[in-house]
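Researcher: We're reviewing a set of sequences before deciding which ones to prioritize for further study. For each one, I'd like a predicted 3D structure that I can look through quickly. This is EAL domain-containing protein. If possible, include the structure in token form so it fits the rest of the review sheet.
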Amino acid sequence: AAKEQGRNAFRFFSAELNQEAHERRRLEGNLHRALADEEFFLEYQPQIDLRTGRVFSFEALLRWQHPEDGLIPPDCFIPVAEEMGVIRRLGEWVLLAACRQCRQWQQPGLPPVRVAVNVSGHQFNQPGFIEMVDRVLHETGLNPELLELELTESALMAGEQETIMTLIDLKVRGIHLAIDDFGTGYSSLSYLKHFPIDRLKIDRSFVRDIVKDLDDRAIVEAIIAMAHSLGLRVLAEGVEHEDELELLRERGCDEVQGFYFARPQLPEALGKYLEAP
Ligand code: C2E
Ligand code: MG
Ligand code: MG
Ligand code: MG
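Model: Here's the predicted structure for EAL domain-containing protein, in token form for your review sheet.
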């Protein structure tokens, strides 16, 4: 019976794999068309400075409105776009749209507001990345100091020496740099002292259980302490409840982002965050 079960499980598993492969091929064919047909759009999620209570930045999050399949979340299609090499074009589209939007947010008499853009390692580690960023900044006229790029630890680990050069190139332009999903990636921390980073974004997985799980709480405290002694700012991702916020505030976390404050939203809905305090 066990054998029979195993065989069935295998059959089921391979059917699932087939399904997955099929799904993937379909996605691939669709991605190119989607770019041409403008099926992509961006939502923006506020990032809040806990000291001032102000929204100082918005993270741009990519969405795909598929004509038949509906809304497809980025975790489903970005890995495919990376494998196919479409991520360069897609990434450039995101940067251009986000910088254009940020330019529009600036209002005379109000403090400047930034935009944070996720950058895939595949995109970042390609030759011509800096030139692409320059082109977009030139085309949109956005002050580079209003742009932040979010990179993951694995993106930064891909090409050590060149990575540092690229980061410095971005930094001298005034662009802010953040490490996204901090704590989930590479295990060595020594890179933090070589890389010109401004901010660590503590991964949501640590924030989620911070009230109940003492280990997660200890990790968050350690990240905050380390970041501060290195002169970095710390933002906690995925804050959903008030007790999480209070704990983070007590522990000296600088900034937060999460459903407790605001979900990612269309630009039309962001007006209230852009008004004078
Ligand atoms: P991320 O950059 O770490 O973005 C945070 C994700 O957490 C977003 O999911 C956001 O909607 C979600 N989130 C924010 N606050 C909360 C909360 O309080 N609770 C919960 N449960 N979730 C929260 P999203 O938009 O589905 O994006 C997923 C990932 O896809 C992003 O993770 C990022 O790695 C990637 N991504 C999104 N847009 C882009 C893009 O334009 N380019 C690239 N390369 N990657 C992108
Ligand atoms: Mg991010
Ligand atoms: Mg993240
Ligand atoms: Mg992520």
